[in-house]
Amino acid sequence: MDLNFFKKLKLPNIKIININRNKNSKITLVESQTIIEKRIILKDELISALKNQNEAQINAQINSGKYLKNTFLEVGNQKDYLRYFCSSIFYLDKIFDIIEVLDFRYLNSNLEKKSEPTFSLEIEPFFKEKDNLEINNSLDFFVSLHQHLESKKDFIGKHPKLGNIRSKFEFKIRDLVDDLIYFKSKIILITEMAGQGKTNFLCDFVENFLLKKNAINVFLTGIEIKSDDIRQSIIKRIFPDDDNITFSDILEVVEKICKEKNEYFVIIIDGINENYNTKTFSNCLELFISDMQKYEFVKIILSCRSEYYKDNFINLENSNFSNSLAVIDSLMKRNLDEKILEKFFNNYIDHFKISYSHINRDVKGQLLSNFLLFRIFCETYENSDLDVIDNIYKEELFNNYYIKKTTEINNRLNHSNGSSLIGSFDIRNFIKKVVKRMIEKKQYTNIVLDEILDSRDDKELYVRFLDENILIKRDLIDYGNSIFGSSEVVNFTFDEFRDFLISDFLIHDVYVNSKKEFTDFLLNEVNKDSPLMEGCSTFLFYKSRKSINADLKSAISAQVWFKNVFAKCIFNVKDDDISVEDKGTLKEMLFDVSIQKKKIILNLINNGNVKNLNIDFLFDSLLEMNEDEYRLNFSENFGTSNYRYNKIDQDDILSFLTEKLYSGWVNTENRHKLFELLIYMFLNDRSYSVKELFEKYYFQNVEIATLKLRKVMNAKNEVLKNEITKFIQRYGISL
Predict the structure, then answer these.
(1) Strands 486-492 and 187-192
(2) Which of 35-44, 162-171, 278-287, 571-580 has the lowest mean pLDDT?
(3) What's residue 274's pLDDT?
(4) SS3 labels along 172-231
(5) 230-239, 414-423, 508-517, 547-556: which has the minimum mean pLDDT?
(6) Could you tell me the pLDDT band of residue 418, with boundaries at 50, 70 and 90?
């Protein structure tokens, strides 16, 4: 037998025995050598290795841009839930502190009046037991405590004689019951849409809680785990250069540390959806977690994009450990208050080193109402001085973002950072193929991945891209009972970005090859019933403005949706890019009774700081209107509090200007123009309030107000001029 065979096996505790035969055929066993001694892992060595692994993972996520350090805001209970989960014994005192101050005297007074037995939490046995709590008996304790308090909550909630006070006292226990779910659970699954901060959340938790608390945990990502060998993947992350360690060896030492510290060992896997072999990984992950249930000291945290979860990992909820699984399905509270939003905004702006002197309130609102758009904005304008942010300019934003991110992605994919994966390709070509396929099939979701790959050899690299970025994603479509099974498909996470790319392809590829194919596509696919209507019509408008091709501009301006898109989008064009032709088109639209004017008028009113499409443009147009044109295109677009459906709120304008009139605010020409607007509102319904406010303004600013009245007396509208004449006569004003 060749001894070198055994040397290659690297098995622990294997000793090689020489077998010698003497001349009498007696066999003697002679110990020749010990090839491998059992690897002894020291506690301090493992603690240090785990700390290094966590810090390395944090740094990797910072370098990849997935962890935005110091931007996380604790706006819900989710981080508390993870604290309770990871350090349950430590936080148990918090639960009992709350229990001790619960007061049920009013409840019992009501019960006594109804001759009902009084209520008691009967918590004393748990008080006695908690002081002896250890890792090896803690989970049973938390399960029992949860069941006990849940039964007490149900007793109050279902009591037939408590009436309206039931909810008040049920509420006192409800939060405790909800919190204890995380004390008793062994697995937490975090699901959330792309771009909503899963990695940010977990990295912040690891860095600012687990590491600072010297907890025992390992932090991995789904992409770096070998789908069919999770244990070996964990070993390699902790001891990357040591081939003589088993997972059992690590758990043996971990258990000793956990018992000494009375803390759990937490295995964190962020982005389980990013693993390349999803089906294999899903099954192996279930088996791994199931096996870990026999270790009381092991807990597991997973995160997954919610778009992938149902198709790929729902088996976790149907497993034998489902009773130990808690799900956090949202990381962001809805309807955050303004102070939180302001802090969130400032954290991101500071992190990306964006400076500005002023930001429009509506623009800020748009960014904060869509965190994915805000993230794109910040990444695009990182390290920029934007001066005044008066518009998002999405066409410019998406164009710059696309160039920046595809360059970064190509660099990252072609420098595989220690992975065995290598390749050289342009991700732009891949995205272009997705868009082309969408246009060819007239299908804007679920493009089959294999149909757009030149070679299956590169599939894993493309999957890495799809699972790591936030704009284009990989999904699994299950065809139910079909013999063809499931299929991997590609989708854009952000519909507006998809529409931006489709519009670009239509102009620079489809139109160049066939004008007829281009116009047919617009007619059939960019219409009121199409998912492309809002986005593509907008981006086609912006992109056509940059073209010098008159036929292309004519083809787009001929679309039935063009005027409405123009009215909406022209105010998002930079002021320096507004042409004489644009101003002429908008003036025509102001005189066109078939076009809704509300937004046009409001945009012109609010555009006091630009030189082209501003409040003066509105005034000049109104001066040219006759009585009927004025009434239909201006006056009838205003409504008072009770009659303002789809109209400009006249009362809101008056309330704002009344507040500003006496505050010293009216100190610039642009602000005086807002009071000039009141003159043009003299013909509005219930205009007595308008005239009353202008009167107050007039006598505070006689000289300026006289000039403005004199100007409007040049209007074509005789009815308006008559109304002004009555006004000046009433107050003895001389023009």
Answers:
(1) unpaired
(2) 35-44
(3) 84
(4) HHHHHHHHHHHHHCCEEEEEECCCCCHHHHHHHHHHHHHCCCCCEEEEEEHHHCCCCCHH
(5) 414-423
(6) very low
Looking at residue 546, its amino acid is: K
- 158-180: burial string, b at 16+ Cβ within 10 Å, e else: ebeebeeebeebbebbbebbebb
The alpha-carbon radius of gyration of the chain (Å, integer) is 35
pLDDT at 123 over 50: yes
| Burial class of residue 467, CB neighbours in 10 A (0-12, 13-18, 19+) | buried
State how far the Cα of 148 lies from the Cα of 122, in Å rounded to an integer.
9
Q: Are 331 and 198 in contact (CB under 8 A)?
A: yes
pLDDT band at 333 (very low <50, low <70, confident <90, very high): low
Closest CA to 484 of 525, 519, 450: 450
- Residue whose structure tokens are 């399960």: 143
**Other beta carbons less than 10 A from residue 79's beta carbon:** 18
Buried b (16+ CB within 10 A) or exposed e, 377-393: bbbbbeeeeeeebbbbb
- Cα 305 to Cα 41, 197, 270, 276, distances in angstroms: 36, 10, 10, 14
E strand or H helix that includes residue 563: helix 562-569
Measure the CA–CA gap between 582 and 573, rounded to whole angstroms. Answer: 10
Rounded to 10°, the helix 650-661/688-700 angle is 20
CB 437 within 8 A of CB 449: no
Give the best-scoring range by mean pLDDT among 153-167, 509-523, 662-676.
Answer: 509-523
pLDDT at site 676: 96
**Which residues fall within 8 angstroms of residue 6, CB to CB, at 6 or more apart?**
14, 16, 35
Average pLDDT, the chain: 87
Q: Pick from 611, 544, 615, 541: which is nearest to 578 by CA? A: 611
Helix ranges restricted to H, 275-355? 278-292, 306-312, 338-351
From the list 320, 207, 334, the residue with the least C-alpha distance to 270 is: 207
Q: Tens digits of per-residue pLDDT, 591-632?
A: 999 999 999 999 999 887 788 999 999 999 999 999 999 999
Residue 479 CB coordination number (10 Å): 10
Structural tokens at position 498: 């998809």
In 3D space, the residue among 373, 436, 395 whose CA is nearest the CA of residue 538 turns out to be: 395
Q: What is the pLDDT of residues 259-281, one digit of tens each?
A: 999 999 999 999 998 887 888 99
At 529, the pLDDT band (50, 70, 90 cuts) reads confident
Residue 18 has pLDDT above 80, yes or no: no
β 486-492/472-478 pair status:
antiparallel
Q: What is the residue whose two structure tokens read 């965190």?
A: 371
Helix (H) / strand (E) element for 478: namely: strand 472-478
Q: Please give the Cα distance from 548 to 446 (Å, whole number).
A: 35
Looking at this protein, which amino acid is placed at residue 389?
I
Q: How far is CA 65 from the centre of its chain?
A: 15
pLDDT in tens, 149-202: 999 998 888 888 787 777 878 888 899 999 999 999 999 999 987 767 889 999
For 32, residues 6+ apart whose C-beta sits below 8 A from its C-beta are 3, 16, 17, 18
**pLDDT value at position 731?**
83
Two structure tokens written together for 637: 């677009």
pLDDT at residue 322 tops 70:
yes
Specify the long-range contacts of residues 541-544, CB closer than 8 Å, at least 24 apart.
Answer: 541/565, 541/566, 541/569, 542/395, 542/569, 542/573, 543/395, 543/503, 543/504, 543/507, 544/507
